[in-house]
Amino acid sequence: MSKDGCALRVVDLHKSFDKLEVLRGIDLEVDEHEVVCLIGASGSGKSTLLRCMNLLEPIDRGQIVIEGEDVTVRGLDVNRIRQRVGIVFQAFNLFPHMTVLRNVTLGPTEALGISKGEARELSLELLERFGLADKRDDYPDRLSGGQQQRVAIVRALAMKPDVMLLDEVTSALDPELVAEVLNVIRELAAGGMTMVIATHEMGFARDIAHRICFLDEGVILEEGTPEQIFSQPRQERTQRFLQSIIEAGRM
Amino acid sequence: MLGLIVWAVTSSPNWPEVKQAFFDPEEFKRAFPEVARAFVRNVQYFLIAEVFILAWALVLAVMRSLQGPVFFPLRALAIVYTDLFRGIPTVLIVYLLGFGIPSLGLPGVPTGAAFWGVVGLILSYSAYVAEVYRAGIESVHPSQAAAARSLGLSRAKTFRFVIIPQAVRRVIPPLLNDFIGLQKDTALVAFVVAIPEAFKQGQIFQAADFNFTPLLAVALMFLLVTVPLTRFTDWLLERQRRRRQAGAIV
Questions:
Q1: Cα separation of B113 and B119, whole Å?
Q2: Phi, psi of A222, deg, nearest 5
Q3: Does any CB of chain A come closer than 8 Å to the CB of residue B96?
Q4: Is the pTM of this model over 0.90?
Q5: Are strands A61-66 and A69-70 parallel, antiparallel or unpaired?
Q6: Which of A9, A125, A189, A190 has the fewest CB atoms within 10 Å, counting from its CB?
Q7: B119 with B97: CB under 8 angstroms?
């Protein structure tokens, strides 16, 4: 736990893919136990920001500080950092050749070096908690999308991360499966997990977030409490974005 | 179609002579036990070579799949190796090694021609198999590596636990293709060894009796191994597919 209670700090983050500058100076602070939702159109940089925070993408400029430790200095053991930051992907990315249980125990045994027995116990406990205990010996292909995504969340949780990053985790799901995944996230938030969530589920964001950040063309254009952002957005682009969401019936 | 070919062949003017030279049951009976015995050697060559090929080719494929400038020398080495040994006919490699190295008389180096013939097979086939592995490795979606790395797994462990197991499963059919090729190419060792394997044994009979039937016996021996091997792989893949997916249907 860092001294100032700040779990994650991003300072002037820049990231380009070839000539395209996807992130153009992001500043963001996330306090411990805080839930921050990133909203914005596709291509606004939400996913890239999350991937950068997990060090899956090298950054061009700026700084990322996790629990008081600058993780952007050269020569750092990136594996150690990633163990503390869990990420869940839009497309689940479960390992299809492993059972559910093995998917969950792989990180603890191979990255953290926890004994097999202990990892198994910890994983079964988590699977039980999220209603997946009976699926432990199944392969991911046998599960519904909602179940797969819950397994992916459990897999990230098994690493006991300080921060969880969720990258549009319900976007690939059938509508009737969205709720079960959102309920899991609600439970995590209630348990005090620090989270950064990129999402298109505005109703959910309004419910769960302590703070909403609206990303537009690689910068955080506007941020504030859900009431502020959804009721009185100041920026014209934010208004237009929310308007288009309402028109699409997604609010 | 097949019937037509059979009819065309059996009604050809020289069929009686050909039948005598290629399909002589007496000759077959006489040659078969010896050929079968010699074939054990082919199976030995095959089994020994295959173990080394599978391991060495995987090393080559991983070397070639490593990214980043740090690994350039390894990548380059793997590329040069593959170009070289895929470019030279296998029979030539077997020849060069089987005759060349024993005649060098290097101290402490095995001088058996069969040994070096098999080494030749290993060097040649691992270049092909490495490419098969590499295709498999590249077919595993990058998101799989991302998921593994995001858990904090090292690059090596990501390869070992996530990428290679999936890659190997996907390339089992083409790998089997190379297995069968290798099983047949064990006959190439015949060119450099004194102790006959099946093909050479067949030739010995053929030369002695002026009859080609023993070679037919050799062909039959090869089929006896390669066909079950193919069926086995089909079964393996089917079982794997069922185990992973059938549950969704029931």
A1: 10
A2: -155, 140
A3: no
A4: no
A5: antiparallel
A6: A190
A7: yes
